[in-house]
Amino acid sequence: MQLDESLIRNVVAAVLSEVGPMPAGSNTPLSRHVPPGAGHNGIFTDVNEAVAAARAAHLQLRARSMEDRKKVIDIIRRISIDQCEELGLMEMRETGIGRPEHKIEKLRTLGMLSPGTEFLQTKAFSGDHGLAVIERSPFGVIAAITPVTHSLPTITGNAVSMIAGGNSVVVNPHPSGKKVAAEGVRRFNKAIAAEVGIDNLICVLAEPTLETADALFSHRDVALICVTGGPAVGRAALRSGKRAIVAGPGNPPVVVDETADLDNAARCIIQGAAYDNNLLCIAEKEVFVVESVFDDMMAAMRRAGAVQLDASQIAKLTSQAITQVGDDKHDAAAKDFIGKDAAVLARAAGVNVPESCELVFGETDEHHPFVTVEQMMPFLPFVRARDVGHAIAMAKEYEHGFRHTAIIHSRNVRNMTTMGRELDTTLYVKNGPCMAALGLGGEGYLSFSIAGPTGEGVTSPDTFTRERRCSMVDELRVV
Ligand code: NAD
């Protein structure tokens, strides 16, 4: 089904006519027969109404059992998995970036693997003075900002983890992914309301703007902020005066040393860098290869199916795909090329490749804009390094201190250790594609909000809880 704005408005209008006008203010007594916003299925155009409804939903959830929380999460999982194709294609049509098969897969995978209530661990201290129990308690209403690169997937992962922690959430989605965000949220809430009896656990602003984001950040009933996006939104969240979890930008470098299995490195680099046309924040963005194996590595990339561009073709692509923005005219990825297919980039370079081609690549120097900029498109620059020390130094420089993600292909444990220490990133993958760091082909768990700047790492239900300690003095130690 194609969702459009008039449909959202109709849903909201129909609901308002049933439940009457929204109560003013955010601290409406919950003794009302109809909680604020009930029947909206999470879709709002007014920040105060959205927060009031989310608050009412949170208080209802708090009064329920853990079993009910699990039921809510299972409903989100079920819809993400069963409807991944329809919703994934809806996201593809609306945003126009990425690859349809990966839009679908992201929803299915997040539905299956986002960590739920099982992640909430209680700790205890037992000693001569009794017993202290440390439990994980919800914050309340969380404000979330989501990126255009994964609109509904980020909402899905955030919702599972936040609700597992006992919270509700109000989302200000990227304007270019607002329709699929609203439709996904509507489906989640509708099913949750029907099966568990709570509406609006996940609220979305149907007309998101920077003003609605600001109003959310400063709302007195918002207890915590979680933003997923580039530098500007991270700065805005940190200025808000509230606790903010910032899943910020990256520019993940790859180092390939002389001991690497080059064919495995090539397969992994293509898998990570080509996924959803390089939209993942963790995706391989530039590769530094030691001189002695540079030409062999380029041959391995060609064997693995990527298409190599020569210097003049790269120059032609760069003139269109990189643009200058801001007062200082700094380089940035051109919007028309972000998340487009490799075949589109190749055509811009004057080369015809089959539509099935996943990645184009080529040699550049280290100062090339495709190295310095987080390009989010499936052209990957390869830079020669004198030796592994030089490669690691360049990787550190062009990661820009985001401390997000870094990757090495090597069999030398010392080199792996040196790079890990030098780059100090939140995610560090050895001999695999970037997604191995999120439990996809490696160990660990999945989330699409990786909080580097504020230090929470790969977000989980624990991230969205407060620690509370209950102390029993001199009793209840039974051993
Ligand atoms: P973006 O920064 O343009 O937008 C992200 C979100 O922030 C959008 O909802 C946007 O409307 C909002 N926003 C932007 N400026 C704002 C401001 N001043 N105040 C309030 N809200 C603001 O990014 P995008 O193109 O949507 O997504 C790609 C970026 O997100 C990349 O930099 C990528 O690395 C990053 N990202 C990071 C993670 C992570 O887990 N760390 C995950 C996905 C994407």
TrEMBL record:
- Pfam families xrefs: Aldedh
Q: Fetch the CDD domains from UniProt.
A: ALDH_EutE
Keyword annotations of the record: NAD, Oxidoreductase
Record SUPFAM superfamilies: ALDH-like (SSF53720)
The question of whether Oxidoreductase is a record keyword is answered with yes
Q: What region holds the Aldehyde dehydrogenase domain?
A: 45-434
Q: Which InterPro entries match?
A: Acetald_propionald_DH-rel (IPR012408), Ald_DH/histidinol_DH (IPR016161), Ald_DH_C (IPR016163), Ald_DH_N (IPR016162), Aldehyde_DH_dom (IPR015590)
Q: Which domain of life is it from?
A: Bacteria
Protein name, per record: Aldehyde dehydrogenase EutE
Query: Lineage, please?
Result: Bacteria, Pseudomonadati, Planctomycetota, Planctomycetia, Pirellulales
